[in-house]
Amino acid sequence: MAAIELRAVRKRYGNTQVIHGVDLTVADGELIVIVGPSGCGKSTLLRMVAGLETVTEGTIAIGGRVVNDLEPKDRNIAMVFQNYALYPHMSVYDNMAYGLKNAGMARDRIRERVDRAAAMLALDGLLQRKPRQLSGGQRQRVAMGRAIVREPAAFLFDEPLSNLDAKLRVQMRLEIKRLQRSLGTTSLYVTHDQVEAMTLADRLVVMNGGVAEQIDTPLAVYERPASVFVAGFIGSPAMNLVPARTTHDGIGVDLDGVGALAHGRGAVLPPDQPVTLGLRPEHLEIVPAAEAALFLQVEVIETLGADTMAYGSLAGGKDSEAGLSVRLPGTHRLEVGDRLPLRPAPGTLHLFDRDGGGRLL
Amino acid sequence: MVENRPLLTIVRHLVLLAGIVSVLFPIWMTFVASTLPGDALMTGRLPLLPGDRLWENYATLLSSGLAAAGGAPVGPMLFNSLVMALSIAIGKIAVSILAAYAVVYFRFPGRMLCFWLIFITLMLPVEVRILPTFEVVADLGMLNSYAGLSIPLIASATATFLFRQFFLTVPDELLEAARIDGAGPLRFFRDILLPLSRTNIAALFVILFIYGWNQYLWPFLITTDESFYTIVMGIQRMLRVADAVPQWHLVMGTAILAMLPPVVVVIAMQRLFVKGLVETEK
User: Fold this and answer.
1) How many C-beta atoms lie closer than 10 Å to residue A238's C-beta?
2) Is A4 within 8 Å of A30 (Cβ atoms)?
């Protein structure tokens, strides 16, 4: 059990900087998910914590001990890889026992630990099998088992579920969460799947281009995204991002040529400033035409049962590229070509600086 | 592919049969010749069925050999060949797997240079470098010794290259998992890479054993002492008996005996051999 602390961590490959100074504290027993698009540096960051990549600048401490120059085996961590990285020629038992054997642990203690982990993961009957005789989910569990038997200070997960099919992924996601809760081991989990990130995390780190854009609880990230990037990345379907300007009085926004909209947050913004207006599809409501703030010209309808998604463009907008989507209750009937009068639910709009992308409101 | 064309099947089988016959017939004739009395081969017409001297001829070969005709006994020659082939096969595998491990898994200055140097030696088979190699071996006093027979043939670019290609297909995550599991370079090699290379090693062993067994020119050059003759060159020596009729029936018997060990190796390791060539177990 230990906290992980990253202080101004940077990584450079030659002249290319891929991590631009990340500060992060993972509290003891906490599960932090690092999420971001491919190439954002999330795996590199995890691998630096594991000791598989060197740290160019900054410090990484596990349990109060700076580990920058320690070998992976001396960092008291365990890692679960995307492709599981099970040793193909060893039985499940040997796979799980290998690290303990190398550490020189007594045979009967190894057996005890492996048996305990196997029971926890329902692998009891499979200990003598080879990895190739296991299903994807079972291999995943063996990889977890290999991490658990070491009783490490921290688990590091590198996209552990992305090789599984959708159904198993949901199931293993729950299993990982339950396991992590019951073991109470500090965990760092990397994924590009935002659903996985939202459901698993105690706190989320949203990374983009080597920078941690926001570090907060999943709900806070959803409710108050710190930047346009976070707003567009977290939430499914993605948030609508519409170009707009603040009004002259600074208490509303003007959707180019469509109409004005009070932001209703009780703050006064600098007037006539170009901004990006963020509206979540699930926060748009159908209202009588007279009260509408904007209209959606419906082009595509997706019927999901519980919900109906309508995609289209902002009617009357100058920028015809600006797409818009709305999530409606499944009971709502509509057709392609409909013109839906919409208004955001009170207090649900997000305003971002058009240039910097930072959050204004 | 599902096809049901009987004529094509028949033609196919005929072609295959023709192939088998053209390969097996000379061997059969060799065998037949080795079962006949010596003078039967001098008539110029070879019977197609074995004669009655099978045990006698082979007993002569294995006990006294062709000593009567000035050659060396077959038993020790077989043993020499075996020593040479095994040393070459095992030596080549040991050296090249270590070389490949170094080239693939360690970042040291001149790594690619080393690899290319090894690779370039592919262009220099024994026959090309035979004179300087002979000079070196002679200066080291290794003529007429097992070391002289095998060591100059041990360095192998082909095997190094093969192992390198195999190591490159081993996922990096295995190395990383092993590092986290506390396995150092030697332990990773012994516990993970070596077992994974098992089928490759078997396939190479078969190829290299036969390569070593069939060496002709090299042993011919560096052995002058009868007790270090290998079987493949021994056959040739038997034919150059001065002032006497070649003992064809015994020469043929020796050829059959020389063929047996490679056949045994291939049959014994066939399953692993094929596996090593076609599948990579990961």
Assistant:
1) 16
2) no
SS3 A215: strand
Q: For A255-310, what is each residue's pLDDT tens digit?
A: 766 667 776 666 777 888 888 889 999 998 888 888 888 888 889 999 888 899 99
Phi, psi of B234 (to 5 degrees): -60, -35
Q: Are A234 and A198 in contact (CB under 8 A)?
A: yes
Q: What is the average per-residue pLDDT within B8-16? A: 93
φ, ψ of residue A33 to 5 degrees: the values are -105, 130
In this complex, is the C-beta atom of A87 within 8 Å of any C-beta atom belonging to chain B? yes
Q: Decide if A89 and B176 are in contact by the 8 Å CB cutoff.
A: no
DSSP 8-state class, residue A227: B
Mean pLDDT of A238-266: 77
Contact (CB<8Å) A73/B182 = yes
A256 φ/ψ angles, rounded to the nearest 5 degrees: -35, 105
Is B180 in Cβ contact with A82 (below 8 Å)? no
Domains recognised in chain B with CATH numbers = 6-74+235-260 (no CATH), 76-222 (1.10.3720.10)
Alpha helices in chain A (DSSP H): 42-50, 92-102, 107-120, 136-149, 166-183, 194-200, 218-223, 228-233
The predicted pLDDT at position A346 comes to 81
Q: Of A50, A37, A3, A41, give the one whose Cα is nearest residue A20.
A: A41
Distance CA A102, CA B178 (A): 10
Helix and strand element counts for chain B (H, E): 15, 0
How close is the nearest chain A Cα to the Cα of B173, in Å?
A: 5
Q: What angle do CA A167, A219, A274 make, to 5 degrees?
A: 115
Which residue type does A228 have? V
Average pLDDT over residues B110-117: 88
Half-sphere exposure of A36 (CA within 13 A, CB side): 25
Among candidate residues A109, A99, A106, the one with its CA nearest the CA of residue A142:
A99
Among the listed residues A43, A36, A5, A40, the one whose alpha carbon sits nearest the alpha carbon of residue A23: A5
Nearest-angstrom CA–CA distance, B149 and B85: 9
| DSSP code for A129 | S
Q: For tokens 């990773």, name the residue.
A: B188
Residues in chain A with CB shorter than 8 Å from the CB of B183 are: 98, 102
Instruction: Give me the residue label for tokens 């009987």.
Output: B6
Count Cα neighbours of A301 within 13 Å in the Cβ-side half-sphere. Answer: 18
Q: What is the pTM of this model?
A: 0.81
| ipTM of the predicted assembly exceeds 0.85 | no
Interface mutation vs chain B, best among A44, A46, A52, most B CBs within 10 Å = A52
Provide the 10 A C-beta neighbour count for residue B103. Answer: 20
Closest C-alpha to A11, from A295, A209, A165? A209
pLDDT digits (tens, 9 = 90+) for B151-210: 988 888 889 999 999 999 999 999 999 999 999 899 999 999 999 998 889 889 999 999
Residue A22's pLDDT is 92
Give tens-digit pLDDT for A337-361. Answer: 888 888 888 888 888 988 888 888 7
Whether the CB-CB separation of A157 and A80 falls below 8 Å is answered with yes
- Nearest-CA distance from A136 to chain B in Å? 14
